[in-house]
Amino acid sequence: MTNPRKEKPGLKERGKRATVTDNYTLDPRNARRHPERNLTAVEASLRELGAGRSIVVDREGVVIGGNAVYEKARELGIPVREITTKGDELIVVRRVDLATDDTRRKALALADNQTATLAEWDEVVLSELLAEVEEIDFETMGFAPLVPEPVSGVPESVSLAERFLIPPFSVLNAREGWWQARKKSWIALGLQSELGRGNEGDGTKRGLTFSSSAQPISVYKAKNRYEAQIGREVSWEEFYTAHPDAAVQSGTSIFDPVLCELAYRWFCPPGGTVLDPFACSPRCAVAGAPPP
């Protein structure tokens, strides 16, 4: 529920109701993920170049498009002005401070397009939302058809996310939070593929081992924050002792159980049999165990 918005004098434009407010809500089912790099770029663009295109909200004040822009605009204290419309006209934002040859105008044109590319699709939410709006032809808007033909033994009410985790042939990103959480859930069931492959620094060459520092950038950032907190540099061993759950990758090469689960879900029919002559943990465990 939104609070009443008081109209400020002098903000009438061609009969539209224009108000100054910041009483909006970020979309709780936003299908776009905004990693730190994306949010940093949006903030820098707003700070250096000012606001460009507008955002869109529904009648309840929930953001439809422009969640990251609105979030960062609020943090920067940028005033927000609302123009009401029913979508039957295009609202043009004229930047009267920018001429066509201005350097900042050229920079804004580049930043406006680049910041959007730094966001990512949340494939689970995306598939759910597409399934809820089947009556709209999204193929003409650039989306591939995601609803497969009915398969014997699979109830039609089962969503794509329930059946496949991610729609088949999507671009995979193992660094996403839901992927890492599911991977930890599988490992918590007792997967120990790294056993018998040697340990870092023990002089063995059994199996595939690599340095404990071979981690995604998010783990490096966490280590840097910890070092800043205690006021000195620490070894990776010290860092893992203080934060035992920080490591995303173990010290040896193992088959990602989430990737294994996706392969089974995508390519094995309901009730099918998995034949793997090289089966070992986690492939045999994922094939035979109920999902976590």
Write the layout of secondary structure elements.
Elements: E1 18-20, E2 32-33, H1 36-49, E3 56-57, E4 63-65, H2 67-76, E5 81-83, H3 103-117, E6 120-121, H4 123-132, H5 160-164, H6 177-188, H7 217-230, H8 236-242, H9 257-267, H10 283-288
Antiparallel strand pairs: 1-5, 2-6, 3-4
Helix pairs in contact: 1-2, 1-3
What does this structure look like?
The protein has 292 residues and is mostly helical. The chain has a domain at 18-120. The protein has 10 helices and 6 strands, in the order ββαββαβαβααααααα. The strands form 3 sheets. The chain has a two-stranded antiparallel sheet. Strands 2-6 form a two-stranded antiparallel ribbon. Strands 3-4 form a two-stranded antiparallel sheet. A hairpin with a 5-residue loop joins strand 3 and strand 4.
Write the element-wise H/E pattern from the N-terminal end onward. Answer: EEHEEHEHEHHHHHHH
Radius of gyration: 25 Å
Structural class: mainly alpha
Major sheet size, sense and barrel closure: 2 strands, antiparallel
Residue share in helix: 25-40%
Distance between the termini: 37 Å
Give the DSSP E fraction (strand runs of 2 or more residues). 5-15%
Strand order of the largest sheet: 1-5
